[in-house]
Amino acid sequence: MKIGDKHYRSVWVAEDGRTVQILDQTKLPYELEILDLNTVTDAATSIRDMWVRGAPLIGAVAAYGVALAMKKDTSDANLQAAYDELIVTRPTAINLKWALDRICPALKEVDPAERLTAAYALAGEIADEDVQINNQIGENGLKIIREIAAKKQPGETINILTHCNAGWLATVDWGTALSPIYKAYNEGIKVHVWVDETRPRNQGGLTSFELGSHGVPHTLIADNAGGHLMQHGEVDLCIVGTDRTTARGDVCNKIGTYLKALAAKANGVPFYVALPSPTIDWTVWDGVKEIPIEQRDGKEQSHVFGIGPDGTRTWVNTAPEGTTCGNYAFDVTPAEYVTGLITERGVCEASPEGLKALFEK
């Protein structure tokens, strides 16, 4: 995707062929800063401290983290050490484990003398596949938007509500939930996006940054405004992403997603979830009971990061001193509240039968 006139991916290898580069998403949308990752610890820190975020991107950066580890030492012991350091950085997004379980066993089959080259090739393959998957998710989701557009009056706007950031900043490129929106806009369909602010980290600001850079009309709203808009017919459909999808179709996404799904169900608004297949955890059935929910530092809840009138960027405390803050990062939306799952293989119902129809070999 583009920022201004320049195309970016959210992770890439520098011209030296070894340094991994990312956009520091903790500085966005106020400042565009490119960071160099030179070690596996750099990669682990970037994931843990949310310099990068979004399940698909976390997986890609973890794969590059393994490649960075091979720069120092290509032994089996160091390969395992890299796996161990990266796997504990974020507990909820399954793509992290998926990527590590793909690249590390593959490298064990490669002669240590060839592992460095192989590691970068495999990480690049994972990143390129993510771009292709998200592009196809966009094509499949575009069909849904076209169907809604066909029922509208000529020139009438389609209003889409999304939660958190599931655009190209959360993936390697295109995004998941935003990919169909970009495709629709590029095709000339008149779309407008209601962007939830997504407290506590205000990741709606990243979505607004993306949409604004691409020219897509959008409005940033408070998290609790979505139900009101649905009641008044101002939302035609919801599209969100997910960090983990269970074998029965439950979806785990940024905290607050469940409430949007409840409001959508109550108001007859279609609620779709866009996901790449690596986000499906076939080992988990009941998302509410089985998916570990990350609890992050309470300071993310009690403080807001922003920019002052003088241009200074800082954290501002919004809670009384001594307040205990609960910072649950994700929630689970049961399958019965999901209209459909938009994947790279097509759109299916959120059910074991729907998922198996697309992915069972």
UniProtKB/TrEMBL annotation:
The highest taxon in the source lineage is Bacteria
The organism's lineage?
Bacteria, Pseudomonadati, Pseudomonadota, Alphaproteobacteria, Hyphomicrobiales
Q: Which GO terms describe its molecular function?
A: S-methyl-5-thioribose-1-phosphate isomerase activity
What does the function comment of this entry state?
A: Catalyzes the interconversion of methylthioribose-1-phosphate (MTR-1-P) into methylthioribulose-1-phosphate (MTRu-1-P).
Active site feature: D243
The EC number(s) this enzyme carries: 5.3.1.23
Query: Which pathway does the record list?
Result: Amino-acid biosynthesis; L-methionine biosynthesis via salvage pathway; L-methionine from S-methyl-5-thio-alpha-D-ribose 1-phosphate: step 1/6
Protein family according to the UniProt entry: Belongs to the EIF-2B alpha/beta/delta subunits family. MtnA subfamily.
Return the protein name. Methylthioribose-1-phosphate isomerase
Does the keyword Ribosomal protein belong to this entry?
A: no
Q: What is the catalytic activity of this protein? A: 5-(methylsulfanyl)-alpha-D-ribose 1-phosphate = 5-(methylsulfanyl)-D-ribulose 1-phosphate
Pfam families (alphabetical): IF-2B
Record keyword Amino-acid biosynthesis present = yes
- Keywords assigned: Amino-acid biosynthesis, Isomerase, Methionine biosynthesis
Q: Which InterPro entries match?
A: IF-2B-related, IF-M1Pi, IF_2B-like_C, Initiation_fac_2B_a/b/d, M1Pi_N, NagB/RpiA_transferase-like
Give the organism the record lists.
Pseudovibrio exalbescens
Binding of substrate, residues: R53, G54, A55, R90, Q203, N253, K254
Picking any one GO biological process from the record gives:
L-methionine salvage from methylthioadenosine
Sites marked Transition state stabilizer: C164
Gene name linked to the record:
mtnA
